[in-house]
Specification:
Blueprint (H helix, E strand, L loop, with lengths): L7 E4 L2 H12 L2 E7 L7 E8 L2 E7 L4 H6 L4 H4 L5 E5 L3 H10 L3 E8 L5 E6 L5 E5 L8
Pfam family, one: Glyoxalase
Protein name: VOC family protein
Length: about 140
């Protein structure tokens, strides 16, 4: 299934974010467009988790950033959104994330509304939740 809504994140260290998100959360690289002169600057990257995509970039000055008032978690002083990803084995996913350096701030737990889930921060403080609860499934 192709998803039309694609989260777009901004990282101070986008090159490290790509490595972290792949190692900790299981994303894979779909496309990475680094600067020709400075490969640490990521103009645009697309990462996949099964059939889902996120996009990210380095902190760059652009009309889009100014117009959208887009900032990093550090610049904002805290996360302004969180991302949720459905995973089959929540505990194994949490173990992988923890081993790769993710800060697990809510350990895996069965949820009252169904499924099991946990929440973590990546190394720049973006908030991620992972769970077996599928809001698309029939109630």
């Amino acid at each position: 299934m192709r998803h039309e809504l694609i989260p777009n994140l901004r990282y101070a260290d986008a090159a490290r974010a790509i490595d972290f998100l792949c190692d900790a959360f299981g994303f894979t690289r779909h496309a990475v467009f680094a600067d020709d002169e400075n490969p640490a600057i990521i103009h645009h990257a697309q990462l996949l988790w099964e059939d889902r995509m996120i996009m990210l970039s380095s902190v760059l000055d652009s009309p889009f950033v100014h117009g959208g008032r887009i900032t990093t978690v550090a610049q904002a002083g805290g996360a302004t959104m969180s991302l949720y990803l459905i995973v089959a084995d929540v505990d194994a996913h949490a173990d992988r994330a923890r081993a790769a350096g993710a800060e697990i701030f809510l350990e895996p737990v069965d949820q009252d509304y169904g499924g099991r889930g946990y929440s973590a921060r990546d190394f720049e403080g973006n908030v991620w939740s992972f769970g077996s609860y599928d809001p698309w499934a029939a109630a």
